[in-house]
Amino acid sequence: MALSLEDLKNKTYWTKCSTCKKELPFGGAYYICSVSTCQGKRTGLHFCSVECWDAHLGFARHRDAGALDAVAPKREAYLASLEDAPAPEAARKVLVRPTGTMASPSSPAEVDTLVVVSKVKQLIRDQSDMSTSQCAIDALTGKVVQECRKAIDNARAAGRKTVMGRDIK
Known about the structure:
- The protein is α+β, with helices and mostly antiparallel strands.
- It contains seven helices and six strands.
- The protein is elongated.
């Protein structure tokens, strides 16, 4: 659960150790992994000790890594960065206009991504050396939802409660 901006401003520590969850104080020393993927904004791994840094290697499987010294920002700098930071994005949902008898066409239904994104991107990359945007994934999810709804209608028309391959045309 994400903290509100007010809760972030009232924190008495900068962040927590990614391994043991010990609080890392403002302006205090901590360690980061030398591998860039562990330093990214999304990953953001911070460690209170070299032992905690070493513990993450079991799942990160780095070939050559080290613990780098770092210093946490002062409280004032942290609060200033909160003022400049954009609002966090919500979890990604795809809006799909329902078709057929499932719902009225005027009310969009929220649907999670229904395709394996990495597999779709790999297929497109292998076939064409092109990249794939999130919009393409959203469009594919919309097509999958559309075809599923048609298949449900076909199974109902046939008097079945099971959607079968023959219901997908």
